[in-house]
Structures are given as structure tokens and as C-alpha cells.
Amino acid sequence: MEKLNIVIKGCKILTPEYKILNGSSIGIKGNRIAVIAPFEEIEKKYEIETILDGYNKLAMPGLVDGHVHTCQEFLRGGTCDEYPMIWTRFLIPFESNLDESDVYASSRLCALEMLKNGTTGFAESGGPLIHAAVKGYVESGMRARLAYSIMDQGREIPDCMKSDKDSLIKMTEDLYHEANGAGDGRIGIYFGIRQIMTCSPDLMRMTAEKARELNTGVHMHLEEHKDEVKFCLQNYKMRPVDLIESLGLLGDNLITAHSVVMTDSEIRRVAQNHVNVVHNPRSNLSNHGMPRVSTLLEWGANIGLGTDGTSGNGMDIFEEMKILRQGEKFAYGLSLFDPKCMTVEKLLEFATKGGAHAIGTWKEAGSIEVGNLADIITINLDQPHISPSLNLVATLVDHVNGNDVADSIIDGKLVMKDREVLTMDEKEIMREAQIHSDKIRVKAGF
Ligand SMILES: [Zn+2]
Question: How far is the CA of 263 from the centre of ligand 1 (A)?
């Protein structure tokens, strides 16, 4: 008799078409979804190792956070309502004072926060000493794409945070050879480009070439705000997308975070080159403005969602869906009387398939289908703010939040059960986190 390691028994399932399938069960073999059928049928055909009770639960694809700042865990709440420049007054003193033990503690806390919010995979935007985070993410059981914070120019950047282009490329290449594919293939090493203002054109060109050679991705902040566009026009007589296109960076292995101030022409080329645009709705709305999501969609761009790390708003992708829905309706839907300008189905697609595309698992994750990777979460529906509902798909976006996630399965392994994370010692992580937070607060002079 064939063996299944986990069966989620008798749950509702969010289908790839964003409809609800009632009373079915999901069987997992190895790290893949092997069967979706009524439990009685599965029971007859398979030997089952673990049964996860799916009663009053909705199984849906795990969420993907496409833009995370692992190393800013201990910056939470620290920049709220502060005057500019946040970058020079907070981020530089904070990041330049981190040591490897801080980054390891950050990665464990960050993983815990993401798991509790239903995130199963993520892309790190580029952090200092990120090699120290690999161990934390391997332990967590999560799917991760990690990158270093890469900078080789910028007057205000201290020497300890930047280096020459050859050393920077070698640093990522070394980590790639050491850690790419770690954690049974769950960990991938990407190249980072912090942003255009802090990376020379030569460094960006070399990054594009090396990433292609190693068949891996690149993660960068792009068109985040007008200052970046102004810098680009002043120094290179080109807009940001024109510049990175000339350097060979546009491609399906590129993640661009924020991407708020793109022109029509830039949007068209980003979409045609299958770039993964990751919006960070809460971060964008409070700092930079509303991304042009409808236009990006019209051109067929792949869109994912990110939280921009915990420091500003926390790491709940459900909240990002809500804010993008309301922001898009306010910015475009109201004035044009287009109530369907940002549907719940589209938002769920961004948070699952779009993110899976961004982290390079788009052919095999992001939806609950036989043969796909088993990255699945369940939502506890038995709560007054969720049930009963006339339209559970709408409720999933408009009412559910990260605290409603009950279980999490990643790569076929049960990582969280009834909100208890099984891969990590939650109490120890919290205790350690407080120690590191107190330490970095003093070191950074906050
Ligand atoms: Zn960011």
C-alpha cells in the first residue's frame, strides 16, 4: 500500500481558480501534494502516517512574502513618526552595529513571525552578514531566498557597510556555493542590489552576468521614490528601468521591490521581461505612494506582495492584501467608478502564485494541485469574525488575518500545528531576541 506522510482530513480547500471546494482531503507524499479526494477514498488506497484534522478549517496555499528585511527585526517600532532621513539617522547606525549573533537571532525571530502569519516562503531583500541567517532559516523549515545587502557607493554609507565590486560579487558567489540548496533545497542564494543610488553601474552589470551564470535571482529596491529617479536622471540621463535594462538586469530572475514611480514605458518593459514586481502596500502608502497595479496587470506583469520586514508594520501578508485592496479602490476605483478594480481573487493570486513566481517556484507552488510542492496553510474558520460567511473567498481577504492561521506545512513537513511552531523553541527565541534587542539599542545609540 502506498504511504502518505500527512493527510489534511475533511477541510475546505481554496482551489487554483479561487473557489471553495467543500469537505475534501489533501494527501501529501514526500514534499508534494499526491491526492485531493474525499477522506474515505484516500483511506482505502493509502497508508496514512499523520492525520491533521481539517474540520472547520480552510486549506490554502502558503503565503509568500516577496520582500523581507531579516536584519531589521530589532528595529520594530523604532522609526515611527520620525523625521527624515530615516536611512541616515536609523538604518545606518542600526545595520552597521549588527554582529553575526544578532543576525542569527533576527533570522529565528523573523521566521517565527512569518510562520505565525501563514508565510511559508519569502525573499530576503538583502541584509548585512546574511550568511549568519542561513542556519536560522534551515532550522525553521521555511523556503527562503537570501541575499546580502550590497553597496559600493554613497557618501553617507560608512566603509564597513560597503566594499569594492569584485569583493561584493565574490561574497555572494561564495555564499551561493556554500548554502544554495541547503535545507533539502529550501534555501536559495540570490544576489542583492540595495538600490541604484548605492550601487555603481559596473557592480550592477557584473551582478546581472554572475546571476545568469549561476542560474539564480537578483533582488533590488527599484523606483521606490522620486529621489531615486532624480538621482538616476542627474547621473545617468536615464530613468531607473532604462538604466538596469542597459546593464542586462531585466529578466524573470529579477525581483524589484516597491516599484511605485514607474512610467508607462517602464511598466511595459518590466512586464515584457517577466520581472517580478513586489509591492509593499503598507510601506508604500506611508512612505512613497500608490503603485500603478492596474497598469502593471494590464501589461501582464507578475506581481507579488511583501511586507518590507517587520520594522514598520509587521509581517502579515493578509494585512497587505487588505491595504492594497483599499488603496487601489481609493486611488483609482472611486474616481472612475470601477468597484472591481482590485478583486479578492487577484489579491490572493499576488500573495500566493505571484510570490511563488518571484522566488522561482512558480511552476510547482502557489496553488493546491496534485503534483505541486506541499506548501499549505490552514485557516481556523470557527471564529466570530470569519463564520458564517456568504462568500468565504471575500472573507479570506477582508476579514482573516495572520492570527487565524492554524497549521503550516512546508515542503511536505508539518512546521506549525494549532499555532504551535514545531521546528523551533518559541520561548527560547523570544528570550534571546530581547537580549539582542537590548544590546543593539545601546550599540546603535537609540
Ligand atoms: Zn525594503
Answer: 21
Give the containing element (helix H, strand E) for 75. Answer: none
Mean pLDDT of the chain: 96
Q: Ligand 1 mean position to 68 CA, how many Å?
A: 7
Other residues' Cβ atoms within 10 Å of the Cβ of residue 346? 22
DSSP per-residue letters across 142-160? -EEEE-B------TTS-GG
User: How sure is the predictor about 300, in pLDDT bands with cuts at 50, 70 and 90?
Assistant: very high
Cell matching residue 317: 501578508
| Fold held by 2-61+366-421 | Urease, subunit C; domain 1 (2.30.40)
Instruction: Provide CB contacts within 8 A for 78, sequence distance 6+.
Output: 90, 94, 311, 446
Pick left, alpha or beta for residue 289 (phi over 0 → left; psi -120 to 50 → alpha; otherwise beta).
Answer: left
b vs e for 281-313, b when ≥16 Cβ sit within 10 Å of the residue's Cβ? bbbbbeebbbbbbbbbbeeebbbbbbbbbbbbb
Distance (angstroms) between ligand 1 centre and the Cα of 72 equals: 10
- Spacing, Cα 194 to ligand 1 middle (Å): 8
* pLDDT tens digits, 55-74: 999 999 999 999 999 999 99
Domain ranges of the chain: 2-61+366-421, 63-358
Nearest to 1 by CA among 44, 36, 41, 46: 46
C-alpha 344/C-alpha 27 separation (Å) is 27
Rounded distance from Cα 67 to ligand 1 centre (Å): 6
Ligand 1 centroid, distance to 369 Cα (angstroms): 32
- The answer to whether 118 touches 402, Cβ cutoff 8 Å, is yes
Edge-to-edge strand ranges of the sheet holding 302-305? 191-193, 218-222, 254-258, 276-279, 302-305
Residues in contact with 61: Cβ distance below 8 Å, sequence separation at least 6, in sequence order: 14, 352, 353, 356, 365, 366, 367, 368, 375, 376, 377
Spatial distance between the Cα atoms of 147 and 270, rounded to a whole number of angstroms:
21
Q: What is the pLDDT of residues 302-355, one digit of tens each?
A: 999 999 999 889 999 999 999 999 999 998 888 889 889 999 999 999 999 999
Class of residue 153 by CB neighbours under 10 A (exposed 0-12, middle 13-18, buried 19+): middle
Find, among 224, 212, 243, the residue nearest to 86 by Cα. 224
pLDDT tens per residue across span 385-402: 999 999 999 999 999 999
The Cβ of residue 390 has, within 10 Å, a number of other Cβ atoms equal to: 6
CA of 233 to the centre of ligand 1 (A): 22
Q: How far is CA 417 from the centre of its chain?
A: 22
Q: 63-358 has which CATH code? A: 3.20.20.140
Strands 46-53 and 57-61: unpaired
